[in-house]
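Progress report, Aim 2. The chain analyzed during this reporting quarter is listed below.
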Amino acid sequence: MTPRPVTVSPASPADHARIGELTAGVHTAEGHASPEYAEQLADVAGRADRAELLVARDADGRVVGSVALVLSGDFGEVTESPDEAAFRMLVVDPAARGLGVGEALVRSCLDRARAAGRTRVVLSTAPGMTAAHRLYDRLGFTRVPERDWSPGPGIDLRVYALEL
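Predicted structure tokens for the chain:
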């Protein structure tokens, strides 16, 4: 059976509850979020003020993934210049994995960053997010270990970048 396509579009306030549930729930269940970070993941309205929220919808219109695209401002802690965009908090519903949802979200971020005149997209990711790493590698991102960082004790993040 051929997977049904997903569509990516800007999130609306009506999507916030589902985005928060999905983002905090998946990251927590998979061991990628402390209780404090889970609170940040659930605060969709807070990040909507600092990033462009995108959602992936399945053929039935259900939100099956989300990402926060940072084109400017302080929400992209990993960016170093105005030429860079970043994305954060990429999440795919476990029931929709393997259907191209993550790739569709990342490609939309890349397209929107290009349209905004950015020349590079950067992201940070935890070492244990190996499925995400495979996606980033497949799309041409490369590791930038000199930019790895730690937002807090015991949290080490890897940086990846893609020249546009």
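The chain has a mean pLDDT of 91. Residues 107 and 163 are 13 Å apart (CA to CA). These observations will guide the mutagenesis work planned for the next reporting period.
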